[in-house]
Amino acid sequence: MPSIRFKRASATLLPLLCLISSLCTPLAMAQDVPSRATVQRTLDSLAKTETPTVSQQEDQKLLTSTLALLDSIDKEEAKAKTQAQRIRNLPTELNEISAKIDALTKGKSVEQIKSEYASMSLAELDSRQPEVLANMQGAQEALGAIGSQLTTLQTLPERAQTSMSRAYQRSQEIRSRLNAGETVSSAEKMKLNAESALLDLQLALLQKDLDNRTSMQDLAVKQRDYQSARLASEEQKLQLLQEQSSAKRLGDTEKTAEQTGELVASEDNPLVQKEQELNHQLSQQLVNATSNLNSLVQKNLQAKTWLERGIQTERNLNEQVQMLKGNLLLSRILYQLYQQLEAAPAIAVKNLEEQIADLHLAQFELSQQRDQLFQKNLYLDNLIAGSKDPVSDEDKASLAKLLDTRINLLDQLNRQLDSQLTNAISLQLTQQQLARTHDAIEFTLQQHIFWVSSNKPIDSKWLINWPTQAYKQASDWVLKPDWKHWRAQLLAVSVLAFPLLLIGGVLMWKRPILIEQQKRITKDLGRFRQDSQWHTPKALLFTLLHRLPGSLFILAGGLLVTYCGLLSPKLTFQITLNLALGYLVFSVYLAVMRPGGIAESHFRIPKAELQATHTSMRYLWLPLLPLIMLATKAVVEPSTLGNDVIGQAMTLSLLGLAAYLVFPISRARIKGEASMQKSIIAIALALAPVALIVLAVLGYYYTALKLTGRLIESFYLLITWGLIYRTALRGLELAARRLAYRRAVAKRDHKSQEDAEGGESIEEQPMDLEDVSQQSLRLTRTVLLVIFGVAFYWLWSDLVAVFSYLDSMVLWHKSEGTGANAILFPVSLSDVLIGFLMLGGAWSLARNLPGLLEVLVLSRLRLAQGTAYAFTTMLNYLLIGVGTLTALSMMGVQWDKLQWVAGGLSVGIGFGMKEILSNFVSGIIILFERPVRIGDTVTIGSFSGTVSKIRIRATTLTDFDRKEVIIPNQQLMTERLINWSLSDTVTRVIVRVGVAYGSDLELTRTLLKQAADENSRVLKDPSPIVYFLTFGASTLDHELRFFVSELGDRNPAVDELNRKIDQLFRENGIEIAFNQMDVYIKNMQGEEQKVESSSTALPPPAEDGKQPA
């Protein structure tokens, strides 16, 4: 508040202070303004010095600047004289303009001009048109210049305040410098005195402009009125000229046609009558061609008129944008131009290309007919020779006259077609240029209207004055229904409204049937034979039809009151349409998400979550309903937002209520087990109303409402996306369940064929979403993302031009080239945002594209194991690297300027990050050479396991205890590595068996071979081999060597063979030897006894020290 008061006080006091300072400037200073001769003489004397000192060189620069300032003083003095002369001539100019307006008003009437043009010939009328067009163009250019002048005068106080404040500050600095005494050189004094004099002149000129601003505005308004009246008069003259030219041209053509029909009307010879009919047809074509030519000429002149207006509008718009940046007046001008642009009449002639092609074809056919008549006598002889009826000399003369008339008709028709072709091509080019001009104006408007504040910021003063302003706004808005116009349009509107009411009534009547159908579908859910993938779409369709009558009644009611006069018809229709759409979307969504509805029965959403969502969404409709109306009003009638204090207060309140209702929904999504993407959407949804409130408070009321409308429509799309996505998921789930059921049935049938008693009954289990094919889910999600991505772009496409405004917000510059060839390129806010978007896009592609490519393409190719993973991994790093480099380049990072930094970093990397760099290079080598691949079983050092991940720095092994072991890539390249499945998964297994001495060796070999041959895991080729290798300490050692096809078969094969060998040896009496020890106990007399396994007790010891016998 104090800062605003200070600004207003400074706006009033600064011009007064500047004027006082200019009047109170000492006369000595005025007398000290150097003359041009003195300055030039001093400069010449310095130029004669062969080796000037540094101070002399500085004096030369100062004196050169002084000469430039003296030139500016001369220009300002001339401008002051012109200004004074113009101010003296203001009353005279006002009187002259008033007299011109009176003369124009009292000029010739329309009837007088029409009668004057009626007495002119067609050539005179055509010669008048260029003059009238030139006058119209001059009036339009004058209106454009006057408009710019009025804009300049309207913004003069703000611009004068800034300029005068800057000039006053500079004057103070000059006085302080001049008072420094001997430290200021004479050359600098000359320069400062000249600059001070120039500032005084500029201040005086600005003050005079401010004093005479009102008078200049009155003159500019009078001039604008005169030029507008002149333009309207010239347009009226042009219209009358076109009407008279068309009438005369058509009259001449019809007269020629009548003369053609009267030439030989009395002849009764069939050949003569036939030729006369052909001439009559040509005359009618000539009349039609003339009418078409008149229409094309009028359209062409009209298009050129609109083109001139468009070009002048575009020029004025660019000037006003540059002049009024940051001014509320700019928003008013932009809103007004935007509405005028939408209200511009559609004058475009469609299918011009086809008309031009038809004209070329008609000209070609006429030229052929004219060529046939080139030798008239020969054509006449052939015509008579081909006639069955006799031809007299009189008939022959009549035919000759008809042919002469036909040649004349063909020539006139060819000229008319040529004129049509010329005007059609000219009209086509004019329309194309007009369309480009229209698009350029619309682009400029959309680019700037979004970023311009439409209202004053909401501060304490706004809050204090709000009751008064609101009362004034409510008093100005008077309900004035136009019932007469409403009754006139009621029949036409009823033709559209009655079918809507009829359809709504029929749906209300059939509502019990729809409810019964929904109950039947719900009953069929979960029943395998009755359930279908179409049940959910049908249920959604029935819900839509159940809720559609409300939207139809809203739309019909809005149509019936469109022309009642309370609001503009366009605004009423748009509000009605948006309300009907909003009611339909919210009512259908609430019906789906209610407990017991489609969301619970079809989508399996928990009932508690449904209850919370349904409650929040039901109340969210209350603030969104009026917000839809306010946003529609802002889009249709933006010029009414300037003083809409009631609308601002309502918007802030409704957005605050929406934020309060949306916050619990977003918090529940964030706290739940949602993905990062859904959490980001939830956070954005919660912050959107807050951001809109901030925009409205800062004065960007139109921007806030425009974004509100787009966000509500985007919310509709998100709701539709959620319903369709869940419907697709349920369809995929049901398809997977049916596939699982068919496989189970096939398995049961196969078992029943083997077992005469039949199989057990199969109990169907519902499948979770995790069991649905990931490929189908990904494809479904991709298709839906593409479809809804196009829908979102279409929804926000009209605001795409808005972001090009960010190109004008330069943040820094980057240079390309060196030395004199260096060129500075600006880096705008748009470049930085695009850089971040590219970085995010590269990150998103790196996360999703390799996997999608693997599913869609690589999985269909017959690639070696691990090749697809190596390809997708390298593609991942490539996308991140290219995206990062491109994004940094967009932000202005110059890599040639970082070469020394890169050199220094390379030294640091060489010493401090040697291991990491070595692992990085090793990872690239592994991905290309592929000594190990995903899924390989390897042994490195003491670690064995299956390769699960290969990254740039390290490789992950999953050992047989399902523990993940991280091994640096450098170890894979430098240490000894055993890859059990690099080129072949077939491995050899050795089973060692020791039999007791005395066993039958041939039988042992046969039994071992038999055990291996009977095992299904043992390969037949190479065949298993049995070797008797050594005589052990207590065993005869044999080895059974065999091969298995997979690494996973090694341990199971050993287990199965050991069991089989034990069984065969027991059956054939072969003892498997094992290490055995006999224990003997020896007494003092040297007697010993063997300890048997039967645990026989030793004899008790003898008494009295006697040993047992």
TrEMBL record:
Molecular function GO labels: mechanosensitive monoatomic ion channel activity
Coiled-coil ranges (or none): 272-299
Domain annotation Mechanosensitive ion channel transmembrane helices 2/3: ranges: 873-914
The Mechanosensitive ion channel MscS domain, residue ranges: 916-981
Residue stretches spanning the membrane: 490-509, 548-568, 580-598, 619-636, 648-668, 680-702, 714-732, 783-803, 823-846, 867-888, 900-928
UniProt entry tagged with the keyword Coiled coil: yes
UniProt domain Mechanosensitive ion channel MscS C-terminal: residue ranges: 990-1072
Cellular localisation: Cell membrane
BP term (GO), one: intracellular water homeostasis
Keywords assigned: Cell membrane, Coiled coil, Membrane, Signal, Transmembrane, Transmembrane helix
The keyword Cytoplasm is annotated on this UniProt entry: no
Domain of life: Bacteria
Leader sequence residues: 1-30
Region Disordered, annotated ranges: 244-264, 1086-1109
Family (UniProt): Belongs to the MscS (TC 1.A.23) family.
Stored NCBIfam families: PRK11281.1 (NF008438)
Record-given protein name: Mechanosensitive channel MscK
Organism (species): Aeromonas sobria
